[in-house]
Amino acid sequence: MSTTEVYQRVIARFTELIEGLEPEDWAASTPCEGWTVRDLVRHVVERDERVAATVGGPTPEPLPEGTDLVGRWHERVRWWADRLADPEQRAAVHSTPLGEFTFEQAAARFMIGELTVHTWDLARATGRSEGLDPEAVRIAYANMRAADEGLLRRSGNMAPPTQIPANSDEQSQFLAFTGRAP
C-alpha cells in the first residue's frame, strides 16, 4: 500500500470527524492542553499551510478570526490531492527543514503523523471512536522515532512521552510517545 493511499485514508477520517462536529463541539476541550476543538482544527489547517509552503505551496497568511475552518480544510485537502494525483508533481523534490523529500515523501513524513495524532485528539474530545488507521500509526510512529526528539519536543511542539505498559498496542505506544494518555 502506498503512503499516498494511507494519507488519503487519514484525510478521510479527519474530514469525517470535522464534518460531524456539532456547534457545541467546537468549544470542547481537547487532550492538547489549553486547546478547544476550534483551536485544534485551526492548528491543523495552519500547520498544513506551513508544510505546504515548504513543498511548493504559497506563503501562508494568518487565518482571520471567524474563518470557516471546515471550508478551509477542504481547500487544503484539494491542494494536496491535486498534487499527489499528478505523477510529475508527486515526484518533484523539495528542500524542507528536515532535508530533501519528494512531494509524496513530504506528505507522508509531515502530514500522516500530524493528522493521525490530531484525529485521535479530535475523536477523544468529541466522544467519537478513537481507533486509528493501523498503517498510519505505523508510519507516523516510525517517522517520529527516527526524527530528532529534541526538535519534536522543543517549544512545546510535543509533550514529553507518557508512561504506559511495555506490552501496549502500537496505537497506544504511538500516542504515549506524543505525550497523550491513551
How would you describe this structure to a colleague?
This protein is mostly helical. It contains 8 helices and 2 strands, in the order H-H-H-H-E-E-H-H-H-H. The protein has a single domain, classed as dinb family like domain (Four Helix Bundle (Hemerythrin (Met), subunit A)), CATH 1.20.120. The chain has a two-stranded antiparallel ribbon with strand order 1-2. A hairpin with a 2-residue loop joins strand 1 and strand 2. The chain is globular and about 45 Å long. The chain starts with a helix and ends in a 5-residue tail after the last helix.
How much helical structure, as a percent, in the residues? 55-70%
The first-to-last residue Cα distance is 27 Å
Low-confidence stretches: none
Give a count of the beta strands, DSSP E runs of length 2 or more.
2
What is the 3D form? Answer: globular
The number of helical runs is: 8
The assigned structural class equals mainly alpha
Main β-sheet: number of strands, strand sense, barrel status? 2 strands, antiparallel
| CATH class designation | Mainly Alpha
**CATH topology, which one?**
Four Helix Bundle (Hemerythrin (Met), subunit A)
What is the CATH homologous superfamily assignment? dinb family like domain
Average pLDDT level: 92
Order of helices and strands: HHHHEEHHHH
Sheet with the most strands: spatial strand order: 1-2
Radius of gyration: 16 Å
CATH architecture designation = Up-down Bundle
- Percent strand equals under 5%
List the domain count as a whole number: 1
Give descriptors for this structure.
Four Helix Bundle (Hemerythrin (Met), subunit A); single chain; 8 helices; mainly alpha; 182 residues; two-stranded antiparallel ribbon
